[in-house]
């Protein structure tokens, strides 16, 4: 049965940026950014290097903190709320709770180098979700099977190729049963011949789950196959937003046309 809270949240976007600012010193990366990602959406952010796409993912993951504005996950404020016209920081405990629903896969895999593959995957489910070790191991084995690495559970990351490490990182993110999966240029550090293996696993996840995905990628074909919405991002704001077929075939904005003609 849906609770009152579920009813209240139904129709809420999975991710909402409301007037978000992000500065690094004098470098203003985002200024008053508004955008939403609906539940179950697969949204790809495209745009020039340095335009702030990774920063957006890192803000959602609370690896960075916005310098202004508000981010909501499932309608719940992530790090700050507005009270009496003031922007108030929420407690660490609150943001950790909200962050449990979000998984992230990084360009550089970011596996724990001193832990075996299986231990990398069960670390968060056991420590953050309080899952029993036996359950976490059973789930990790299923996920390793799904990403084609059932025989690597006792390996250390350094014994694996880049593509294999990235598949472990995907399994690790999925082990938390995230509602939202953030994919940050996950194939950029891989040799060209294994890029497709990793993309195929992600396509399969997109096809077989309803996880909301926010994707930063240079793989335009992947963006086209997997996303239902593409945001062209430049100068700290969304320049254009469209379904992939429209964005890649008939973009409206000159800025988007220039960018796509340089990368396609
Ligand atoms: P993109 O993903 O679009 O290439 P990024 O989000 O990585 O862009 O970077 C946007 C801008 O923010 C760049 O100017 C970058 O140098 C700056 N930036 C990102 N992270 C940091 C950081 N931790 N410290 C200082 N500047 C940063």
UniProtKB/TrEMBL annotation:
It comes from the Bacteria. NCBIfam families: ectoine_ehuA. Gene3D superfamilies: P-loop containing nucleotide triphosphate hydrolases. Keywords: Amino-acid transport, ATP-binding, Cell membrane, Membrane, Nucleotide-binding, Transport. Residues 15-260 form the ABC transporter domain. One of its GO terms (molecular function) is ATP binding. One of its GO terms (cellular component) is plasma membrane. Belongs to the ABC transporter superfamily. Pfam families: ABC_tran (PF00005). It is a peripheral membrane protein. This is Polar amino acid transport system ATP-binding protein. The lineage of its organism: Bacteria, Bacillati, Actinomycetota, Actinomycetes, Micrococcales. It is found in: Cell membrane.
